Amino acid sequence: MVDVKDLLEYNAGVRRKYFESFLKLSWKDFTKNRGASFNSIRNIFVHTLGAMDYWLDFLKKEDLHSRKKFNEYKTYGEVKSYMGHVEKRMQEYLSSLSSAGLKKMYTVTGEEHKRARITAEDVLVHLVEEEIHHRGELNALLWQMDIDPPPMGWKGL
After folding, report:
1. Quick one: which H or E segment has residue 115?
2. Gap between the Cα atoms of 61 and 66, Å rounded
3. What count of other Cβ atoms lies within 10 Å of the Cβ of residue 155?
4. Residue 96 and residue 102: Cα distance in Å, rounded?
5. Residue 123 to residue 49: CA distance in whole angstroms
């Protein structure tokens, strides 16, 4: 069985490869409205970081997530800095998380306004799924530009 912490570590490594590949794009191409879920490659990438940031606040009972709007990220450096902030928060959370902590229960109100009981592990699995979902979207946008996405096989596959 794969540990969710291993999946999150894998996602972090792939995320950095994607960011490095984005640096080959002009800022105009990175921020161009491509009619995708959050319009541009920048916005989709920042959205995935924002989801992690938001759910870390939820899990840690903090209020540290960024409230910057997508268009307020004006440089690759600002996006990279935000990525570093979120990754540091996630690493700190995971390093302090015990097996019992993974099973800690929370109550949330879902998209259909129904209350649900979930575990910390459920939230972390959701974050893995969220990022992979949008990574597929980023792949499609890169392919439309005749750019191959970075390699991302699990454990070098």
Report:
1. strand 115-119
2. 15
3. 6
4. 11
5. 14
Q: What is the pLDDT of residues 51-65, one digit of tens each?
A: 999 999 999 999 999
Task: Give the sign of the dihedral formed by CA 88, CA 137, CA 150, CA 44.
Answer: negative
Give dist(CA 129, CA 127) in Å, integer. 5
For the 4-156 domain, the top CATH level (class) is: mainly alpha
Is pTM, for the whole model, over 0.85?
A: yes
* pLDDT of 110 strictly over 90: no
Question: Contact at 8 Å (CB) between 82 and 19?
Answer: no
Six token digits for residue 132: 């992979």
What are the tens digits of pLDDT across the range 142-154? 999 999 999 988 8
CA 18, CA 138: separation in Å to the nearest integer? 9
